[in-house]
Amino acid sequence: MWRPRDAPSARTLRSPAVSTSQKTRTGETLDVDHSNAAYRAWLKEAVRKVQADANRSADTHLLRFPLPEKWGIDLYLKDESTHPTGSLKHRLARSLFLYGLCNGWIRPARPVIEASSGSTAVSEAYFAKLIGVPFIAVMPRTTSAEKIRLIEFHGGQCHFVDDSRKMYEESARLAVETGGHYMDQFTYAERATDWRGNNNIAESIFRQLELERFPEPAWIVATAGTGGTSATLARYVHYMQHDTRICVADPENSCFFEGWTTGDPDVTCDCGSRIEGIGRPRMEPSFVPGAIDRMMKVPDAASVAAVRALEQAIGRKAGGSTGTGLWSALKIVAEMVAEGRQGSVVTLLCDHGDRYLDKYYSDAWLAEKGLDIAPYTAAIVSLLETGVWPD
User: Is the pTM of this model over 0.85?
Assistant: First the structure.
C-alpha cells in the first residue's frame, strides 16, 4: 500500500502579496496577524468567477451506443467533450483551481504551473485567464499541435520537455523560480474533487440513468491519466452502496495496469503513452488501486480502432482515450452477451477528436507508428454483427 505524496517543495510557501503583518504582546501571548483585505477581496472574486462558470454550464449528455435490442444491454458514453474547454479535464481543472484558491496557494499575478500532456493544460489555461493569473503548461514535445494552439488561445504558455518523466521536476522548478504555484494534478486530483456528490461525474451518471431500463449500471469503465476520475467513480459507488463495478482501461506504455496487478507502487516504464491524456510512466498518487474492481491492458491499435468505430456508430469523433475505454466496455458487453446477462455499461467520451486529426484519424500516423487496426476493427464488427467476440 502506498500513500499519495505531498511535496511542499513543489510549491512555494508564500506570505500575502502585500504584508499587513502586526505583532503585539499580550501577557504571554504572541499574536501575529497576516490579514490582507485586498487579497481576501481578490480571493472572493476569483472563487466567485470559478463557481459562476460551473453555474452557467449545463450537464454533459449521456449518449447511447447502438447495440442489438435483443441483447438486452445498453451501452452509454458520458460526453465530456461538451464542456467549455472540450474535455473531461474541465471538471478537474475547476476543482483544482478551487482547491488551490481556498488553500491560499494561488495568488494574484503569480503564475500557475502544471505538468500536463494537453487537455488538463487547456482547461487550466481557461481558468487562469478567467481569474487573471498567468499560466505555464509543462508538456512533452509530442503533444498535439491542436492542444498547443488551444492552450495559447486561452492565454497560456507552453514549456516543453523531451522526456515526459521530467515534467514533474521541471514544473516544481519553475514554480520556485517564478514564485508561482505548481498545481500538481497527479497528486491532488483525487482529493480536490468532492467524490461524495456535489454534481461530480459519478452522481451525474446515476442521475441521468434514473429513467433508463437499467438505472444501476453493471460496469462503469474509465481510463487513467491522474487516476482522479476512476477514484471519484469508485468512491462514489462505494459510498452510495451501489452494486456497480469499476473497470480501468490502460493503454500501452503505462504503469497503472502492472502496478495494480502486482501491487508494486514503484513500477516505472521508459516509453511515453501514445494515447494522449492517459497512461503514465509511474504510479500516480491520485490513482487509488484499492477502490477499483478490474483493469484491462488495451493495445493502442485497439484504442484507435474503437474510436473510429465510434464515429461510424454515432457520427462523433473522439480522442484516443475514449477508444481505450470503449474497447474495454465492448469486451464487457461481449461477456454479458455470452453469459446471457442483461444490464447497462457506461464509459466516457473524454474529448473531441478534432484535436487528433493528425494522429488517430491519420492513416499516415498509424503507419509511422506501426499500428495495424484491421484485426481490432474486425473484432468490433464481429461483435456488433454476430454477438461473438473473436478469440
Answer: yes
Which residue stretches of 145-284 are H helix? 145-153, 167-178, 185-192, 201-208, 228-239, 256-262
Distance of CA 358 to the CA centre of its chain: 22
What confidence tens digit (pLDDT) does each residue in 26-62 have?
Answer: 577 899 999 999 999 999 999 999 999 999 988 999 9
Residue with grid cell 503513452, as numbered in its chain: 273
DSSP letter at 61 equals P
* Chosen CATH of 57-84+196-385 out of 3.40.50.1820, 3.40.50.1100, 1.20.272.10, 3.40.50.970: 3.40.50.1100
DSSP 17-56: SS---EEEEETTEEEEE---HHHHHHHHHHHHHHHHHHHH
State whether residue 142 is helix, strand or coil. coil
Range with lowest mean pLDDT among 82-86, 139-143, 172-176, 331-335: 139-143
User: Could you give the strand order of the β-sheet that contains 135-140, starting from the edge strand earlier in sequence?
Assistant: 157-161, 135-140, 112-115, 181-182
What Å distances lie between residue 75 and 69, 107, 212, 334, 380, CA to CA?
11, 44, 11, 11, 14
Under CATH, what is the fold of the domain 90-189? Rossmann fold (3.40.50)
The domain ranges of the chain are 57-84+196-385, 90-189
pLDDT at position 180 is 98
80: closest CA among 43, 122, 47, 108?
A: 122
What element of type H or E holds 91? helix 89-102
CA distance linking residue 91 with residue 89, whole number of Å: 5
- The residues facing 223 across adjacent strands are 249
Instruction: Please tell me the distance from the alpha carbon of residue 218 to that of residue 345, in angstroms, as a whole number.
Output: 6
Query: What are 266-286's pLDDT values in tens digits?
Result: 999 888 899 988 999 899 999
**Residues 6 or more apart in contact with residue 234 via CB below 8 angstroms:** 246, 288, 291, 292, 293
